[in-house]
């Protein structure tokens, strides 16, 4: 109490003098002395609190030393989440300065990425002269999924620079992922039947499931793609030609009806994820097809293979560019969506000049325009690009009355929102313009823009605003409450406390909301707990999956897949198996169950869809953009996912990342070392050197990390170059290590 009282007393005195224009020199002298004392006596949080109250955090930098800077910055980082803007960024700026002062570069880089400040990132590369550390920075940048070009200032030697750029481009991701798969011994391809496990159910379900219908085959296509994602082999699409009898992969392709073939051909891209060379070689055969949907799928597959991986020769652009202006809308969508996936976050001029004309093309069909808006939103995610915003706004204004009622039209405001993802007040000018739209889409656009702009910020006022929008009871036909409900989840996912509160608020919406709110609630829960199956949310979704309203039930089933994505969670897998027998006569619901089953076993349990990484500190914009696009599409399941646009499910590839810790040596070769993996413990402001993990087990790398896990090295022999053990971590030998023997 004493310390709080002291800070408050100072704050009151400071405010009083501020209002009276009285001098506060002697007050600040006193503050100087108190801060110096606190910093020398392990009371860093008190010093920080005091300086925040008198608005003079800059003093902190001179008072930190080697012994206390880590604790100070830890406190600054975690308090930033609960401060209103622009104070939060000021606090992080100070933490960045302190980290740079003590050359704690990897931590500084994380703050630079959190602030989305590329000048800081450049400064870190130019200040640090250790090549190994720079390689570690590149791994962090690659995991964050941003496009970053190194120049001569950041790395003078051409050969070294090429090596670093290759890491940023994620060229080694596929190799690392397969190393993990071999280590855990899951290379054996799985078929959809292995996932459905129909033999565990009683008779009636398996009887219904044996029908060879197009919808069942389409579901199997997706399950197969999700489960074998990135493994490069499966039992449907990549089967080696048995005695060259026209290989069975083409056979599976033709077990899908018209637009189903698009998803089937594209699924090959998912199976060969991140492996650009062999991926393009295998997809190539579909380009020679005479069947339009197959070509469309091949184009999309090229985009999927290149997702998250950059390549110097830009194969995706070279292959897809010429198809963008074809006559056929299916082919155009394949090429446009492919470009969106391959260049997400790249802010590529070439793609902008290629796609903007389509938005204003009077001859282009609505679906082509909708996918163009989304792809531009993905490529320029969070860039606040004016030209694209204008083009999408004009495209929205050109829509006719009847078109404004179409579910696909609602992807246009989403494309606009993605441009401002996480950029807060930068969206205001565009939001003002959206108030002039036709009233059919006006509120929908407003909610979508706000939810994107404040995504991942934890802004309490915005959550209240969305809850207020959801409190209105409306006639049928109003769509804006769906994006508002998703908005609650997008804003509140930023930190654990807000997340728990949002889950409780969503419970209330379920009880009192109309149908258009209730069908969005499961999707919001799915986003809040993505790849992190919390028991209470699992139970809520399980209850909703038997809801009398089919749309609510479908959303709940898909969300069960999302919260269990890549976890192989046995309880969710059991729920979904029971649902598959419960809904065996309802093809639409069964389709959703299958998709969810595929998601739970995503990458055989090696992948995650969580857009957060680095101990839940950083949010990857492209990953969130992919998730939000899918969730918006799921607001109208019947028209989109169950219609002919099921390939929207492939937007999930933007969020797919291996949930691994892979330790490598100085030559970037895998280096197995013992690590302790356990539940992370929050140690901010605690005295002494508390343990950062609890209930740990010791494994040898590479290891899998679940949601909320943290790893630490169990050996003194090596020093990790990144303070956070996730993804690829470079180890260097500890020069002071002596073997006991």
Automatic annotation (TrEMBL):
Q: Which residues form a coiled coil?
A: none
Q: Which Pfam families match?
A: PC_rep, RPN1_C, RPN1_RPN2_N
Tell me where in this chain the RPN1 N-terminal domain is found: 10-200
Highest taxon listed in the record's lineage: Eukaryota
What is the annotated signal peptide range for this record?
Answer: none
Arranged from A to Z, the UniProt key words for this protein are: Proteasome, Repeat
One Gene Ontology cellular component annotation? proteasome complex
Tell me the ranges covered by the 26S proteasome non-ATPase regulatory subunit RPN1 C-terminal domain, including all copies: 684-737
* UniProt cross-references to InterPro entries, sorted A to Z: 26S_Psome_Rpn1, ARM-like, ARM-type_fold, Proteasome/cyclosome_rpt, RPN1_C, RPN1_N
Q: How does it assemble?
A: Component of the 19S regulatory particle (RP/PA700) base subcomplex of the 26S proteasome. The 26S proteasome is composed of a core protease (CP), known as the 20S proteasome, capped at one or both ends by the 19S regulatory particle (RP/PA700). The RP/PA700 complex is composed of at least 17 different subunits in two subcomplexes, the base and the lid, which form the portions proximal and distal to the 20S proteolytic core, respectively.
PANTHER family under this entry?
26S PROTEASOME NON-ATPASE REGULATORY SUBUNIT, 26S PROTEASOME NON-ATPASE REGULATORY SUBUNIT 2
The UniProt similarity line reads: Belongs to the proteasome subunit S2 family.
Its annotated function is as follows: Acts as a regulatory subunit of the 26 proteasome which is involved in the ATP-dependent degradation of ubiquitinated proteins.
Its name, as the record gives it, is 26S proteasome non-ATPase regulatory subunit 2 homolog
